[in-house]
Design a protein that fits this description.
The complex is a heterodimer of chains A (about 300) and B (about 240). Chain A has 3 domains: about 1-40, no CATH class; about 50-185 and about 275-308, no CATH class; about 185-215 and about 250-275, no CATH class. Chain A contains 12 helices and 4 strands. Chain A is flat and about 80 Å long. By secondary structure, chain A is mainly alpha-helical. Chain A has a two-stranded antiparallel sheet. Chain A has a two-stranded antiparallel ribbon with strand order 3-4. With about 240 residues, chain B is an alpha/beta fold. In chain B, helix 4 (about 95-105) runs parallel beside helix 6 (about 140-150). The longest helix of chain B is centred in the middle third of the chain and has 14 residues, at about 110-125. Chain B is globular. Classes of the chains: A mainly alpha (about 300), B alpha/beta (about 240). The structure holds adenosine-5'-triphosphate and magnesium ion.
């Protein structure tokens, strides 16, 4: 499917990028005059040889979830515990061969969401630290509020790092197996799988639609043909075209889901999600799991006892 | 010996009232390789979808001697390997292995047997080394072959293929034709590729407007340019 897109003519940076990295998938927004804006990479998996990559996906999944739980349950103000948790995250990042820089760069992408916690800094009662007027309001920044905000920021920053290490060192298929192993409902896991598979197909379809539009978004060759008009049409018209494309994409997705369902039925699908029984977790990975869980449990207990 | 496929007076209208099949009857003997040709909208895909009971029209259908009914649906779906036009619809799992294993897993086979069948099916289409690959990284020709492997692993008696050569480059097309020629099953192939029909499929059924307008040896039908022309076909 991807190779079909390569075959067509179109925005060269996009294609060379895809050719250089076939795992790269794009959310490309094509605008007149700017053939390509905005690319992001959907598949975070980085195939490397490292002990973290080799670790059983289920163990990684459980440890990552336990890490995030520990982070969120560690009481406010237990900074030494956060420091220790961070050192765990750092060791995983280094061990995995992904590198601290890579993980931190990715983690930065999640930081804007932390901004949602900013009101905390102003609404927590405590020693006023800074006061300034904002329109009709008088905002008071308190020291406690600031600390609380910092706490939330650190919590999310640490959690995101764990998620990034997990997703970058585990193939999506192994993540699905892990979810199944921890008894997340099979139907839900099957839906994640289908979503992941067809996300790529759907993005391809969107790229083809946008390519078709750009191919016809020329400007009049003789200005006299379009007197006094800007090429590109009015904003309302462009919005209408974009809306039509979104609708078109939706219809295609519905059609495709019909065809996939038929293909599944043809091979015996009866509404029940079936799969192989999973292999037992190897003993070595089991040890890693228990050590990891014990360590996280100790950190959590320490945090509760001293700062809770 | 029973016929592989027997269809009698099959009529079907889509829910929007559009009649797609208007009384279709034919039978195919075991091991026969038959082409299903006709213009766009003739009803070819619709007919194929009846063979394993995805669509249910009026009329009688028997597959491998068993009349199609609620009770035989499961058995018939494993007997008819249906290969759809767009391999992206057929390859819905994350890896090639999972996709080829899907049918056998649903038949409830033990794991060792499933693994054996996946291996054999991939070997038959020459894609043994692709088992762990992720489906969306494959080329069009590879996807087509693996789509065929996904039904070979069910060891079907009949292969029903919808436009197998569409979208393939000449080399991939050539490889696919060779592959289909080597497979021993009964085959019903809906296609616009009359060159492939001439090479591969000794019998041809021409469908137009939901009716069978001709059914006979390919060599004979392809010698009748008027007939072909009247039904939107062109001599290769
Ligand atoms: N899901 C549907 N709903 C309503 N009508 C449909 C549907 N699918 C197909 N049809 C109609 O049924 C008729 C037969 O369609 P069918 O897809 O079987 O033709 P075909 O011979 O396979 O054509 P092609 O060569 O284009 O694949 C067409 O007129 C088509 O518009
Ligand atoms: Mg068709």
């Amino acid at each position: 499917m991807l190779s079909l897109i390569f075959a067509g003519a179109g925005s060269p940076p996009l294609e060379s990028l895809l050719r250089a990295n076939p795992r790269a998938l794009l959310g490309a927004v094509v605008r007149p005059g700017r053939p390509l804006v905005h690319i992001h990479f959907l598949d975070p998996y980085r195939p490397l040889a490292s002990p973290v990559h080799d670790l059983d996906g289920r163990v990684k999944f459980i440890l990552a979830v336990a890490f995030i739980l520990t982070v969120s349950l560690t009481p406010f103000g237990a900074w030494p515990v956060y420091l220790l948790l961070w050192s765990i995250a750092l060791s995983a990042e280094i061990l995995s061969g992904l590198g601290v820089g890579y993980v931190l760069r990715r983690a930065a992408l999640a930081l804007p969401f932390v901004l949602a916690a900013i009101p905390l800094a102003f609404t927590t009662p405590g020693t006023p630290w800074l006061e300034f007027p904002l329109g009709p309001w008088q905002l008071t920044l308190t020291l406690d509020g600031l600390l609380r905000f910092a706490n939330v920021a650190v919590k999310s920053w640490l959690s995101v790092q764990a998620a990034i290490v997990l997703a970058s060192s585990t193939e999506f298929r192994d993540l699905l197996l892990a979810m199944r192993a921890v008894r997340i409902p099979r139907l839900l896991v099957a839906m994640f799988g289908l979503m992941w598979r067809y996300l790529f197909v759907l993005v391809d379809e969107a790229v083809r639609l946008m390519r078709a539009r750009s191919a016809r978004s020329g400007i009049a060759r003789r200005p006299a043909d379009a007197p006094g008009r800007r090429p590109g049409g009015s904003l309302a018209w462009r919005a209408k075209v974009a809306g039509g494309m979104a609708g078109n994409l939706f219809l295609r997705a519905v059609d495709r889901s019909d065809r996939i369902y038929v293909a599944m039925l043809s091979r015996g699908y009866d509404g029940e999600v079936r799969s192989f029984a999973t292999q037992p977790v190897p003993p070595g990975a089991r040890v890693t799991l228990w050590i990891g869980l014990a360590l996280l449990g100790l950190l959590w207990l320490g945090g509760i006892l001293v700062w809770g | 010996m029973h016929h592989s496929i027997e269809v009698k007076d099959l009529t079907f209208s889509y829910p929007d009232g559009h009649p797609a099949l208007r009384g279709v009857s034919f039978s195919i003997a075991a091991g026969e390789k038959v082409a299903l040709v006709g213009p766009n909208r003739a009803g070819k895909s619709t007919l194929l979808l009846h063979l394993n009971g995805i669509l249910r029209g009026q009329g009688a259908i028997a597959v491998c001697g068993q009349p199609l009914s609620e009770a035989t649906l499961g058995a018939i779906r494993s007997a008819v390997g249906m290969v759809f036009q767009d391999p992206d619809d057929q390859l819905f799992s994350l890896t090639v292995f999972d996709d080829v294993a899907f049918g056998p897993v649903y038949q409830g086979l033990p794991e060792a047997e499933v693994r054996g069948r996946v291996e054999r099916a991939l070997a038959e289409v020459g894609m043994s080394d692709r088992a762990t690959r992720v489906s969306h990284h494959l080329s069009g020709g590879e996807k087509k072959r693996i789509a065929i492997a996904t039904v070979l692993s069910m060891q079907p008696e009949i292969l029903a293929l919808d436009e197998p050569t569409s979208g393939l480059d000449p080399r991939a097309r050539r490889g696919l034709i060779r592959l289909l020629g080597e497979l021993p099953m009964t085959m019903l192939v809906s296609t616009h590729d009359l060159r492939m029909v001439r090479e591969l499929l000794p019998r041809t059924i021409i469908l137009d407007g939901g009716l069978i307008v001709a059914d006979g040896p390919t060599a004979e039908l392809l010698r009748d340019p008027d007939l072909l022309h009247a039904h939107g076909l062109e001599l290769p």
